[in-house]
């Protein structure tokens, strides 16, 4: 996500993607450019007879107001806050999952219908970014995330006090809509403070929170359901959300460069009395036409015409959907087959989390190679250098699925075998998912928001639908054949990173959204 330099135009018809330029331009601002900006600011107009010229406010060299220039420790503190913002809603997506059977009995529906308490929440992740993404690029990151997070807490309480199926499902859906604000905007906020070379590590840590939430949620939810009641899964989620909200409300600063530059222009006008100071971001407005053209039309167009978006989005969506499908599959394996109680069976999700954390070594281990590739290209992004961890993750993920399918459906096989497979599934998932996001951001530059929006929309639909199909499918054909089908799809996707390593540059040259200079 870009944040500092803006195109010099102020016709009032700009949109966030029209005025943003990639963050390498921020690093390329020279001292000479900064001095010219200061010289222009000293004499914005001469005499009283001439109209005052408009002086665009920019960052000076080493400007302390520029988030990229903030101290390393402070940026780490902000990254920690952003990680909490991502963890709270992702945790809420799955914490209620172990209570599905109890909820089904309470609201008088079957278990297949009760799965909607997870699916509708994730469906909200598909709808919400259409609102929160444009808000963040007009009003800033803080105002687009914190009020929405507070609303998530309110709807979590609404679910906890629900007395019928309609209220449970409606509050869960709107909880997902509001909870998607941090999910969709945190990665952009990380790009606002970290350089491209450091961003990969920061985003990898953030990804652990996004993917760790759904794996830790069932462990906590099972204990709460067994020892207290299903309602406490949502009360605890609300408490967690409000605690994160209070912490970030007190300490999280605005980090979006254009908003900060707009504030700088307003401050200069007030301090100097000179009305010539301005910033193009002051002319940006959020309107229905912008939402339709930038947040809907372009992502849909990219999802249907860009081979790289199509392949990467479907790959990321598939593994994301499988992650949420495990919320239904693991109870079948560890409760129905191995006869563990709900609490012990939910501990199997810790294997996924261990795998997600292990994948950090692979993702971060690729960073030195990526940095060398970027420097060799003169500071330009090299998306193909992101792909080796994806290739490794694809192999691990496929092996993990077949391993789990061939061992998890049989009580005669020691329970340790499918537990080891969960670690492989978690590690493979994180490697694939994280590098898919990085690849899209590096490839599409100015249009990265649209590319990632297409990915977010598709993956949320996949994560909504697959859990609904999981229990009927596995009950009908069994765990082994069912998981083997998923393993077969994963195996078919194995060539994707290798094909893009070889043909990625050629495809980028032909793309209307990812031109090569």
TrEMBL record:
Region (Disordered): 1-20
Chief place where the protein resides: membrane
GO molecular function, one term: transmembrane transporter activity
Gene3D superfamilies assigned: MFS general substrate transporter like domains
Keyword Ribosomal protein: no
GO cellular component: plasma membrane
Location within or outside the cell: Membrane
Keywords on record: Membrane, Transmembrane, Transmembrane helix
CDD domains found in the cross-reference section: MFS_Tpo1_MDR_like
Bias kind Polar residues: ranges: 1-16
Transmembrane segments: 84-107, 113-133, 145-162, 168-191, 203-226, 238-261, 300-323, 343-366, 387-406, 412-433, 445-470, 476-500
Extent of the signal sequence: none
Bilayer topology: Multi-pass membrane protein
Domain Major facilitator superfamily (MFS) profile residues, every copy: 78-505
InterPro entries reported in the protein's UniProt record: MFS, MFS_dom, MFS_trans_sf
Record keyword Transmembrane present: yes
Pfam families registered for this protein in UniProt: MFS_1
Stated name of the protein: Major facilitator superfamily (MFS) profile domain-containing protein
Source organism per UniProt: Knufia fluminis
């Amino acid at each position: 996500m870009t944040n500092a330099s803006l195109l010099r135009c102020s016709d009032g018809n700009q949109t966030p993607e029209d005025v943003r330029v990639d963050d390498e331009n921020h690093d390329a601002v020279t001292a000479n450019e900064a001095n010219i900006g200061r010289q222009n600011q000293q004499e914005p107009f001469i005499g009283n007879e001439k109209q005052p010229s408009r002086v665009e406010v920019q960052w000076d060299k080493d400007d302390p107001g520029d988030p990229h220039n903030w101290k390393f420790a402070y940026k780490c503190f902000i990254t920690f806050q952003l990680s909490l913002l991502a963890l709270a809603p992702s945790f809420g997506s799955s914490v209620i999952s172990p209570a599905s059977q109890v909820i089904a009995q309470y609201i008088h529906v079957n278990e297949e219908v009760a799965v909607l308490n997870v699916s509708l929440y994730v469906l909200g992740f598909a709808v919400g970014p259409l609102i929160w993404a444009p808000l963040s690029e007009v009003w800033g990151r803080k105002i687009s995330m914190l009020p929405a997070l507070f609303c998530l807490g309110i709807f979590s309480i609404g679910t906890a006090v629900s007395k019928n199926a309609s209220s449970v499902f409606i509050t869960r859906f709107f909880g997902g809509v509001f909870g998607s604000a941090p999910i969709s905007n945190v990665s952009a906020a990380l790009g606002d403070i970290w350089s491209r070379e450091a961003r990969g590590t920061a985003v990898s840590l953030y990804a652990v929170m996004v993917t760790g939430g759904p794996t830790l949620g069932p462990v906590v939810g099972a204990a709460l359901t067994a020892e207290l009641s299903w309602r406490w899964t949502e009360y605890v989620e609300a408490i967690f959300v409000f605690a994160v909200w209070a912490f970030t409300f007190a300490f999280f600063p605005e980090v979006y460069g254009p908003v900060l530059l707009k504030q700088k222009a307003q401050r200069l006008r007030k301090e100097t009395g000179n009305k010539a100071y301005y910033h193009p971001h002051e002319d940006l407005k959020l309107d229905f036409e912008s939402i339709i053209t930038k947040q809907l039309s372009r992502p849909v167009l990219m999802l249907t015409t860009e081979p790289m978006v199509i392949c990467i989005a479907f790959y990321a969506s598939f593994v994301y959907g499988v992650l949420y499908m495990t919320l239904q599959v693991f109870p079948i394996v560890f409760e129905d087959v191995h006869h563990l109680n709900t609490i012990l069976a939910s501990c199997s999700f810790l294997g996924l989390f261990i795998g997600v954390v292990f994948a950090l070594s692979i993702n971060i281990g690729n960073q030195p190679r990526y940095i060398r590739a970027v420097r060799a290209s003169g500071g330009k992004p090299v998306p193909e250098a992101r792909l080796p961890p994806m290739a490794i993750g694809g192999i691990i993920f496929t092996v993990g699925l077949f391993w789990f399918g061939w061992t998890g459906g049989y009580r005669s096989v020691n329970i340790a075998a499918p537990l080891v497979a969960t670690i492989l599934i978690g590690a493979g998932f994180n490697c694939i998912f994280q590098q898919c996001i990085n690849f899209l951001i590096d490839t599409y530059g100015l249009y990265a928001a649209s590319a990632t929006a297409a990915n977010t929309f598709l993956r949320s639909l996949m994560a909504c639908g697959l859990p609904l199909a999981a229990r009927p499918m596995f009950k009908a054909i069994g765990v082994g054949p069912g998981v083997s089908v998923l393993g077969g799809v994963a195996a078919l996707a194995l060539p994707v990173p290798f094909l893009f390593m070889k043909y990625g540059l050629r495809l980028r040259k032909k793309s209307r959204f990812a031109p090569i200079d």
